[in-house]
Write a structure and sequence with these properties.
Layout: E1 3-7, H1 14-26, E2 32-36, H2 50-55, E3 58-61, H3 81-85, E4 90-94, H4 99-107, E5 117-123, H5 133-147, E6 153-156, H6 166-183, E7 187-192, H7 194-199, E8 207-210, H8 214-225
Parallel strand pairs: 1-4, 1-5, 2-3, 2-4, 5-6, 6-7, 7-8
Helix pairs in contact: 4-5, 5-6
Length: 226
Amino acid sequence: MRVFVVTGHYGSGKSEFSVNLALVLRSREQSVALADVDVVNPYFRSREQRALLEHHGIRVIGNTMGVDRGVDIPAVSADVYGPLTDGTTTTVIDAGGDPVGARLLGSFRRLIPLNETEVLCVVNALRPSTRAVDGVIEQIQGIETASGLRISGLVNNTHLLEHTEVEQVLAGDLLCGAVTEQTGIPVRYVAAVKPVIDALPDDVAGERITIGMHLRDAWMLTAKEA
């Protein structure tokens, strides 16, 4: 796949996952871009890690104003179109999972090469709205309806930040497995901090992504400085 669209509701950890996925892909690919098109959530924006990502050779695309931190500008740069259409750049799109964000994603759906695209729904089984199968499916259906895109993979990103325990990720694995049974959507990734990833049993579904909490550290530093 060349394009990875990452969606999920607030608190799912989709932006942190997007940053870490881009870093993993860069270790495998020559050209990688991360496009942050989530114009709704003013916190934990993936584009705030521009310095880290660019240090690793990842192109970062944000809003039209060139402002990354602490500003809520509901406009996406037209620069996002380039990586989607050049046929060579592996692109991670950090998209909002609420109706507004999903509709924005749908606005440039025609530019997304569907046969080369994975549309991921990030699931945190510890969030109130996605603790049960029905809640996850409702989220998926809402994203699909608003964006016009079909979710093709799940991400088990069940977490309590650095306090995440193996048992919690295993509970997320069971939840995502039940969603797969009802929808046919497979689990593509399981994401967690390194001690948890290293301790997971072999039968947990999904490719393992070790999460570095880059966004949380940056946000906390900004809050302290303020």
